[in-house]
Design a protein that fits this description.
With 1017 residues, this protein is α/β, with parallel strands linked by helices. The chain is built from 47 helices and 16 strands. The relative contact order is 0.04.
Length: 1017
């Protein structure tokens, strides 16, 4: 754990979070303490109360060791005017720093040495300021909105103290009372009085690890506040650390806060902090040399103490120390194959160049799993087969590691065995005869490890050899039985009596039948009472999920059950459910037992399917669906169990898969599932059904994205005709159909037809929805973009102004559609050559998007992109490159590396480099754009033609005429397939004519004149 923290510090991924204990050690030159703790501060404040009775009452409250300091601060504030309270607070906090003994700053100085530019503190004082050697030190208080807003985007580039709860120079904004605390820490950041600060804190907690220093946790109050700081945002994205004096660890500390102990306060604490930095150069440098590249997501890591299997873990390490070895961890279900292999994986991943983890499920083939998991990192295309995947993995320089969990078929082993050339293969399986030579036969636990595991859960009696013998030292059943004792479902006397009477099944690890009998006995004891029905029902629901590690947030969205976390924890404590980090997994043995004996009927599960379908809804334009890949195996699991159920609830799951894959830019996958559900809908609904129209609309959208605009138009026309027939001519969906057809014609370059259909949409919307409706504003917006494409910029500006004013009026000034209008106003002004106005509106769009959508949203990346193009037009190519790089990084982060918008960023960066006359870099990025576009769209898409066209212009500048001709001919060949690319074809053919003439002229030149037209002829 300490090495992990050291590595994070070295990588600048740790932010110190400083509490009162740091200031409490600061002394005056006369040796007296300069600062108060919470209790002393409140005592000092209470002395300013005029009425003695009130003053005495508050002191009495403070003597209670369980008092809530925030509530007492409330009492003090209520007994004084706001002005008097602030004056009193300022006076109490007033310190003459000139009288401080500077040698007592050693502790905060050590914190500044932890490789960080930012320290967060809940202290109000200037101790961290005085301890910092950087003369350009900056500080933020809770009102530093601009700096906090930029934190997620730009980071912190100079030494900065962030006073999270306010600063002594401004007592008005100090967080001291429960009201001020609750005004700040709200569940919904938009409701916080200090929204920017809370949003910045959320970003920090979710992207960095915090190191808490100077927090004394002897008092429940401090533990509660510390836990809440992490838990307010789920506390699940990163681990955090706290330095605590040995022996002072509280039992109720949030599990995501890992404790690092030091011997005593004072110099031992300073030494501990210094050791985190000074030893890093020794410990971490070697790890950095062996830093790994993750080809897939990694298995959840269980950082708790590892009980049992130490000898076996050591054997795996020794056997895999040889190059390119296949090692099989074999054993019956529930004996810890996955756990021990995962342990090896995490402890040794830094010793490999590339690592991958693939968990086999019963819903997907090995080929499908490899393709899904490795698609992004291996740049796989839809048509690539399994042999291609193996070849690309074989091309990686060794040494690499593949952890394949729960291999079920011998033939699957034969398929991946060729990777043995440059990969260590660590495979868990129940199959016994794969590779006898390199196989660890994982049996039940040895007596000592079995006893240690049992006592780690239930330790009231160490004389348990008879119980362990009866359980055959099997880890899964030890866990279940010990948990039953701990939770008092049974006591030791009852258990022994049951063993004697043979009313509880003796485990035989070679007989699965005894597993089921034992599970049945345990199940009856745990869930026999009515009050346990909720837990039983939850366990039955979880059996429908794949036996994979599933994040809590995903389960919460799927299940929507009150107090879900509490109930999950009870199942964990009872031994039915495994928990690692913030993920939960139902063991395959238990899953099978539940489905075989207690499978719920469809009607009892359908609400889960409905929840998923409603959440991942293609009609929800605010959802960033590309981040929801974790739902794919869950949806597939439900579909495999209920493939015979054909109704709109299950159809919605296919729509959800369509939505996820479409958002990830995997249009072929999206098309596959939507085409499948289209056929289902046609089989269960009459010909004239709005649900059939829904599939036709989605298929049209996918065809549009794939550049197949004629097919897009065909399906949108089908949907429109169906909508008109079912719903009549005066219906909002009909207007939406007109709108969508307009967008397709706009993409085809048929702008008059686009205008015709957008006018139809506008008139119909005004008639049936009224003039003040968001859809009317959308039509104004779309009319504007068509006029912009036609070059009628004043008309475009007129309609965009209408859209903006209407959106502000009916949606309010803080709405995504308003930011869209700002964005579009900007692009119109840019086309008009008014670049300063363009920049003004694009900055408005950016700030509004960051405010309402957060820093990590595709629209924010779009604003970065557009700001870049404006700076490009202004001739400020360095700023253009800066913002385009921001757009690229953000798109890669939130959309993944294989997305059309990422290809667009490569394209735009190329153009900036071309403007900077750096043709090598321009060519490098345009080739990246080309390869990615071919991978996503295939080789006949208009965007692929754009890349060929842009490459030809780069070569034109370097006078490489043959390459110009080669690439422009490829662009022309693609554009010729689509009659709507007339404008592009005209320009491209002009270039082809020009370069052909140059080649002819160059060929006629004498030798000493060569290179005038072409350098490569």
């Amino acid at each position: 754990m300490i090495n992990e923290l050291k590595r994070l510090i070295e990588e600048k991924k740790v932010i110190p979070f400083v509490g009162a204990g740091i200031s409490k050690n600061i002394k005056y030159k006369d040796g007296l303490n300069a600062f108060f703790d919470w209790k002393e501060l409140l005592i000092k404040l209470s002395e300013k109360i005029e009425k003695e009775k009130q003053k005495s009452a508050i002191k009495l409250f403070l003597e209670d060791e369980h008092c809530d300091y925030l509530e007492i601060a409330d009492m003090i504030e209520k007994r004084m005017s706001k002005n008097d309270f602030n004056k009193a607070l300022k006076k109490v906090l007033d310190i003459d720093y000139n009288t401080i003994d500077e040698t007592t700053y050693d502790l905060p100085k050590a914190i500044w040495n932890l490789n960080t530019n930012l320290i967060i503190t809940t202290n109000y004082d200037k101790v961290l300021h005085k301890a910092c050697e950087d003369e350009n030190l900056s500080h933020w208080d809770i009102q530093s909105k601009y700096e906090q807003a930029n934190l997620g985007r730009d980071g912190v580039n100079k030494s900065t103290v962030w006073h999270l709860h306010g600063f002594e120079d401004n007592p008005d904004d100090i967080i001291l009372t429960s009201k001020s605390y609750n005004d700040f820490y709200t569940e919904n950041p938009n409701e916080s009085k200090h929204k920017s600060a809370l949003e910045a804190l959320r970003t920090t907690i979710n992207t960095k690890s915090l190191l808490f220093i100077g927090f004394s946790l002897d008092d429940d109050f401090f533990v509660k506040q510390l836990n809440r700081t992490v838990e307010i945002f789920g506390g699940n994205s990163h681990e955090h650390y706290i330095l605590l004096k040995k022996g002072s660890r509280p039992s109720n500390l949030n599990e995501n806060i890992k404790v690092i102990e030091y011997e005593n306060h004072g110099q031992p604490l300073i030494d501990k902090i210094n050791s985190l930095k000074t030893q890093i150069d020794i410990d971490i440098s070697s790890e950095n040399k062996n830093s790994f590249n993750a080809l897939t997501s990694l298995p959840a890591e269980n950082k708790d103490y590892f009980i049992g299997r130490q000898e076996e873990l050591e054997e795996i390490k020794q056997r895999l120390s040889s190059d390119s070895l296949t090692y099989i961890v074999n054993g019956i279900g529930g004996v810890g194959k996955s756990e021990i292999s995962s342990r090896y994986f995490h402890e040794n991943k830094h010793n490999y160049k590339n690592v991958a983890f693939i968990e086999v499920s019963d819903t997907s083939s090995i080929e499908e799993l490899f393709k899904t998991k490795l698609k992004e990192k291996l740049s796989l295309e839809d048509e690539d087969d399994f042999d291609t995947i193996i070849q690309r993995l074989q091309s990686l320089p060794q040494k690499n590691l593949l952890f394949l969990d729960n291999l079920e078929k011998r033939e699957d082993f034969d398929k991946i065995k060729p990777l043995n050339t440059n990969f260590d293969l660590l495979i868990t399986t129940r199959i016994t005869d794969i590779d006898v030579k390199n196989q660890l036969n994982l049996d039940t636990l040895n007596p000592k490890d079995a006893k240690d595991l049992f006592l780690s859960i239930y330790n009231k009696d160490e004389n348990i050899s008879d119980i362990l013998e009866y359980l055959d030292n099997h880890p899964l059943f030890i866990n279940l039985t010990a948990s039953s004792l701990k939770r008092e479902y049974i006591d030791l006397e009852e258990l022994r009596e049951s063993i004697t009477n043979q009313t509880v099944s003796k485990i035989d690890s070679k007989d699965n039948k005894t597993f089921e009998e034992h599970l049945q006995n345990t199940f009856n004891k745990h869930f026999v009472s009515v009050e346990k029905d909720e837990l039983k029902y939850l366990l039955q629901l979880l059996a429908f999920f794949p036996s994979l590690e599933i994040a809590y947030e995903v389960l919460e969205k799927c299940l929507g059950i009150e107090k879900l976390k509490v109930k999950l924890q009870k199942l964990v404590e009872n031994g039915w459910l495994n928990k690692k980090d913030n993920t939960y997994k139902l063991h395959q043995i238990i899953k099978t037992f539940i489905l075989d004996n207690y499978k719920l009927e469809y009607d009892d599960v359908s609400f889960v399917i409905k929840n998923i379908g409603e959440y991942i809804n293609p009609d929800d334009s605010t959802l960033i669906a590309n981040k929801l890949g974790a739902y794919i195996p869950i949806i597939e699991s439900f579909l495999s169990l209920y493939s015979h159920i054909k109704n709109e609830i299950t159809c919605a799951l296919y729509d959800s898969l369509t939505n996820i894959y479409y958002s990830q830019g995997l249009y072929d996958n999206a098309f596959f599932y939507q085409e499948k559900v289209y056929e289902i809908r046609k089989s269960i609904y009459p010909e004239k059904s709005e649900f059939i129209a829904k599939s036709e609309i989605l298929l049209s959208i996918i065809y549009h994205a794939k550049g197949k605009l004629d097919k897009a138009l065909e399906f949108q026309n089908k949907a429109l005709l169906l909508s008109e027939e079912i719903l009549g001519n005066k219906h909002p969906l009909v207007a939406t159909g007109y709108n969508n057809i307009s967008l397709i014609y706009q993409a085809k370059g048929e702008l008059d037809r686009a205008l015709e259909f957008q006018n139809k949409a506008l008139l119909l919307r005004e008639e049936i929805l009224g003039e003040k409706h968001p859809d009317v504003a959308t039509s104004y917006n779309n009319m504007s973009t068509i006029y912009q494409d036609k070059g009628e910029l004043d008309r475009a500006l007129e309609f965009q102004n209408k859209a903006l004013l209407l959106r502000e009026e009916i949606l309010g000034e803080k709405h995504p559609d308003v930011s869209t209008s700002y964005n579009n106003m900007s692009t119109i002004y840019q086309d008009k050559g008014e670049v300063d106005k363009a920049l003004e509106f694009q900055n408005k769009a950016l700030l509004l998007r960051e405010d309402i959508l957060g820093y990590k949203h595709p629209d924010v990346a779009n604003s970065y992109n557009n700001i870049s193009t404006i700076y490009q037009d202004k001739g400020d190519f360095d700023k253009a490159l800066e913002f385009q790089s921001k757009a690229l990084l953000l798109r890669e982060d939130i959309l993944g590396y294989k997305h059309p918008d990422v290809a667009n960023s490569y394209n735009n960066i190329s153009i900036v480099y071309q403007d900077k006359r750096d043709l090598d870099k321009a060519l490098e990025y345009q080739n990246k754009a080309l390869l990615l576009r071919e991978e996503i769209f295939g080789d006949k898409h208009p965007d692929v033609a754009i890349s060929y066209n842009n490459i030809s212009f780069i070569y034109k500048e370097s006078k490489e005429c043959k390459k110009v001709k080669e690439n422009i001919e490829k662009a022309i060949a693609i554009w010729s397939l689509n009659y709507f690319n007339k404008k592009e074809l005209f320009v491209a053919k002009d270039l082809l004519k020009e370069v052909t003439n140059h080649i002819k002229k160059e060929n006629k030149l004498k030798y000493n004149k060569k290179g005038r037209y072409c350098k490569d002829s």
